[in-house]
Design a protein that fits this description.
This protein is mainly α and 83 residues long. It has one domain. The protein is 69% helix and 0% strand. Helix 1 packs antiparallel against helix 3. The longest helix has 18 residues. It starts with a helix and ends with a helix.
Length: 83
């Protein structure tokens, strides 16, 4: 096992690489799910749950301030990915 902060960082790196390989996929999903009678938009539940578990471990270790949510986390890293 790794220290929680290292595990979070490594997971973030892998998530970023995954997102880069899926460039353009969001537009395709949006196009299909917005069509009349199209399928429902898929949810990010597994990724949000993974982020939450890592954040809780970091909070317990005292390396992330208490109360940071998965939503907070993704808002922050989405901004970084735009740079």
């Amino acid at each position: 096992t790794r220290p929680p902060e290292r595990a979070l960082r490594e997971w973030m790196d892998r998530l970023a690489r995954f997102a880069l390989t899926k460039a353009g996929l969001a537009d395709a999903i949006r196009l299909v799910t917005s069509a009349p009678g199209g399928p429902a938009k898929p949810g990010p539940t597994p990724v949000m749950e993974a982020a939450g578990a890592l954040l809780r471990a970091c909070e317990d270790a005292g390396v992330v301030r208490p109360g940071v949510t998965s939503d907070d986390f993704f808002l922050a890293i989405a901004g970084l990915w735009q740079i």
